[in-house]
């Protein structure tokens, strides 16, 4: 069994309040969880209006499969027009 994690920091330029940020982040997290069946949560930066850190975890039986799935998730997140990704950390254990 292999566990892959992805930590993605995003900048949300259109957010003018915590409510705007939460709406954007929660909507995208629900889409990712439904589409890719991964564990996902917002980490850190919870009080910042225009930044969010999102953690994703995926479990699989081969390194290639886990890396591919996490890359699919990252591509999906990168296609979101409401934010821009500023930092990505991927780890496999």
Q: Estimate the strand proportion.
A: 35-45%
Name given to the CATH homologous superfamily = TT1725-like
Structural class computed from helices and strand pairing: alpha+beta
Q: Give the name of the CATH architecture.
A: 2-Layer Sandwich
Query: In order across it, which strands form the biggest sheet?
Result: 2-3-1-4
The helix/strand series, from N terminus to C terminus, equals EHEEHE
Helix content: 25-40%
| Shape type | elongated
**How many distinct helices?**
2
Instruction: Return residue spans where pLDDT drops below 50 for at least 5 consecutive residues.
Output: none
C-alpha-based Rg, rounded: 13 Å
Domains counted in the coordinates: how many?
A: 1
**Number of E-type strands:** 4
The biggest beta sheet is recorded as: 4 strands, antiparallel
CATH class: Alpha Beta
The CATH topology is what? Alpha-Beta Plaits
Rounded mean pLDDT is 94
Termini separation (Å)? 9 Å
